[in-house]
Design a protein that fits this description.
The chain has 182 residues and is mostly helical. It is built from eight helices and no strands. The mean pLDDT is 87. It comes from Mariniphaga anaerophila.
């Protein structure tokens, strides 16, 4: 596409012409997806990044200034999005490794006393719940019953079951907060 046609297309897009934007999308979307897939080796992430780029382009159409060619702008933008995606994934992976290491350390033989203390404290905390809440919580967590099954067995509403479980979890979080290292 020559510079003059690009400028006309961009002017139409800035003016809110959806057909012009669709033409731009149809022309560049497949090429940008292919490029991004080669960079990321993840087709679904690649499509998401390219779609996000077009959404941002449309949302910022009035203030976006493209000095170089439209094609260069789009490929440079998608490259930057790929780099951000890669950096973000590296941070997430590092965090996951830290959490995994903490979990492995906690569940190793070194922390058997802490584990036993935690399980004992959990059981004590559940036992301290009001009788009806405790029963509903145990039916859900220990027996693996669904909310509607509990409601039927106890002849109460599903909403009551949801409320009681929510309150039980909230109470347990408060009582066990110093164990919540993750």
């Amino acid at each position: 596409m020559d510079k003059q046609r690009e400028n006309i297309l961009l002017a139409k897009i800035r003016g809110g012409d959806k057909k012009a934007f669709e033409a731009l999308f149809r022309q560049y979307y497949p090429h940008l997806c292919l490029y991004t897939t080669k960079v990321l080796k993840n087709p679904s992430a690649a499509e998401e990044i390219v779609q996000e780029l077009f959404v941002l382009l449309w949302e910022n159409r009035k203030k976006t200034k493209i000095e170089s060619s439209l094609q260069n702008y789009l490929f440079r933008a998608v490259k930057n999005h790929c780099l951000n995606y890669i950096k973000h994934n590296q941070i997430v992976n590092e965090h996951s490794k830290k959490v995994l290491a903490q979990t492995e350390k906690f569940y190793s033989g070194e922390n058997i006393d802490t584990q036993q203390e935690l399980f004992q404290k959990i059981e004590e905390s559940i036992s301290e719940l009001p009788e009806k809440r405790q029963k509903i919580f145990r039916m859900s967590r220990e027996e693996g019953l669904k909310y509607n099954e509990i409601a039927l067995k106890l002849n109460i509403s599903v909403k009551t079951v949801e409320t009681q479980i929510g309150l039980a979890i909230s109470t347990l979080r408060k009582k066990l907060r110093h164990f919540l290292i993750f």
